[in-house]
Design goal:
Order of helices and strands: HEEHHHHHHHEHHHHH
Number of strands: 3
Strand content: under 5%
Structural class: mainly alpha
Radius of gyration: 19 Å
Strand order of the largest sheet: 1-2-3
């Protein structure tokens, strides 16, 4: 853990240095009709997540070269998109390429149809993570729970990755959280942070799955990120059923509806999502039948989602009378 003592102050300095760069070049997120904030905020501070990956890699003889290459592809394209919006096909191509490179060894043994399905699913997870950045504290707190859970498992149950990698990522999340988890956030992650954090989460999920005795036999480990998976997937289904373009940017996730339409404070929403995921993760580690547990959790989330939007539609209907 000697590298960690060097990394903590380095990440703080790099984040503060980025703030000065962003201020100088006016790199800010200006609110629009899809935004959940009302004033310009410094954008791209999530670059610290990529820097954490880079620092770990360089200080450990590039232990995971494919993962580093994938993260680098995503960081470059996503940050470029933060500065000047890129065509959706460019972003998608970069995401698919990064996933194939980062997880090539894991997916190369699969059949073609399985490989395609997994790559598309992973791309979906990256984009679900991308939406988190619109609500203060959401990306930081949720990632803290997810990565922290993997850290607990890695230390106490089964070691599937170098503990220092998780420690460095947690440090980066905490540094970002200090500036983002506020009623008036000083910065937003930007695509460069949320997309890279999504890749880090996928990397930990894959490594954990490979270390388990039932490797590849079930997908119950997705329970570790099921709150956001359910919100993202159900929102896509809702938009599809309503005849909307599912690839178009929007602010229709449950947490966005809570903040924008019901005016629930951002931090309250973020803390609620993080705590719910934490409770689910603890339950997952305690139960014996994890497949059944994951199914029941998924059904509960689906039901809650449906009831929430039924309530919202009823409220809108009453308001329109």
């Amino acid at each position: 853990m000697s590298t960690l003592f060097f990394t903590i102050p380095l990440l703080i300095v790099l984040e503060l240095l980025y703030f000065q760069i962003a201020k100088h070049f006016h790199i800010v997120d200006r609110p629009n009709e899809r935004s959940s904030h009302r004033k310009p905020v410094l954008l791209g501070a999530g670059v610290i997540f990529y820097l954490a990956v880079l620092i770990y890699s360089l200080s450990h003889a590039v232990s995971f070269p494919r993962f580093l290459i994938g993260a680098t592809i995503l960081a470059i394209v996503s940050y470029t998109d933060d500065l000047r919006p890129l065509p959706s096909w460019v972003r998608l191509l970069a995401q698919l390429s990064a996933i194939v490179v980062a997880f090539y060894i894991s997916i190369s043994t699969l059949q073609i149809w399985q490989m395609i399905l997994l790559v598309v699913f992973f791309a979906g997870v990256l984009n679900v993570y991308n939406f988190m950045d619109g609500v203060n504290g959401m990306l930081a707190l949720y990632s803290l729970v997810v990565v922290g859970t993997f850290g607990f498992i890695n230390f106490f149950i089964v070691r599937f990755v170098d503990p220092e990698f998780i420690a460095i990522m947690l440090t980066a999340i905490l540094v970002f959280a200090f500036f983002n988890c506020r009623n008036k956030a000083r910065c937003f992650s930007g695509d460069v942070g949320s997309i890279v954090m999504g890749l880090v989460t996928l990397f930990l999920l894959v490594k954990y799955d490979e270390a388990m005795p039932d490797n590849g036999e079930n997908v119950s480990f997705l329970c570790f990120i099921i709150v956001f998976l359910a919100d993202g997937l159900l929102t896509i289904i809702k938009r599809f059923l309503n005849g909307k373009n599912i690839l178009e940017a929007h602010r229709e996730h449950m947490y966005e509806t809570l903040g924008n339409d019901l005016h629930v404070p951002h931090l309250r929403i973020s803390v609620s999502y993080a705590l719910l995921q934490l409770v689910i993760n603890v339950g997952y580690l305690l139960v014996s039948d994890r497949n059944l547990y994951t199914f029941l959790v998924a059904m509960a989330l689906v039901g809650s989602y449906g009831l929430f939007f039924f309530y919202c539609n009823q409220k809108k209907g009453q308001g329109g009378k």
